[in-house]
């Protein structure tokens, strides 16, 4: 990781440096999932074209896709890249901004808690269902839901605590960044 930080300076006031390596690791895992997904789709197409399909590739593809999506949700929560109504909150200031930012992050925290609770239940029930042809329990596909929910909760709490301490207003987003947020 070196000295270079992947944390945008406009968001540093909402983040603890101790979680930076975790964000980096999650981003790497997301990249591995995207790469694995792309490679398995390519291999699936090639093996089907030459009439020697590897049936397990569809399982691997779906696993990479699911894990990539849920790990990506956790990373996006830390980076405040989605799940927030930034267009509304950025137009506010003072107490109104604090209330709106707090509300946004409490909603995200509630969603993360629901993911942990119901995702874990789903994970446990997944040992009774199996993927074909490998007979791998679906629980391993479901595991990413409570894990992602845990990280979403962790990052929402981090931003709440730091926002209350340091204020939610950081450096203004550039026009390019504004186009990519909700």
Feature tags:
two-stranded antiparallel ribbon, 66% helix, 182 residues, 2 strands, mainly alpha, elongated
Which structural class matches the secondary elements? mainly alpha
Helix content: 55-70%
Q: What is the 3D form?
A: elongated
Major sheet details:
2 strands, antiparallel
Q: H/E order of the elements?
A: HHHHEEHHH
Q: Residue-averaged pLDDT, rounded?
A: 86
Q: Roughly how many Å apart are the termini?
A: 29 Å
What is the number of strand segments? 2
> How large is the share of residues in beta strands?
under 5%
- Count of distinct structural domains: 1
Description:
With 182 residues, the chain is an all-alpha fold. It has one domain. The protein has 7 helices and 2 strands. The chain has helices at 20-49, 56-78, 86-89, 94-125, 139-142, 144-166, 175-178, and strands at residues 130-131, 136-137. Helix 1 (20-49) runs antiparallel to helix 2, helix 2 (56-78) runs parallel beside helix 6 (144-166) and helix 4 runs antiparallel to helix 6 (144-166).
Topology, element by element:
Elements: H1 20-49, H2 56-78, H3 86-89, H4 94-125, E1 130-131, E2 136-137, H5 139-142, H6 144-166, H7 175-178
Antiparallel strand pairs: 1-2
Helix pairs in contact: 1-2, 2-6, 4-6
Describe the structure concisely.
This protein is an all-alpha fold and 182 residues long. Helices cover 66% and strands 2% of the residues.
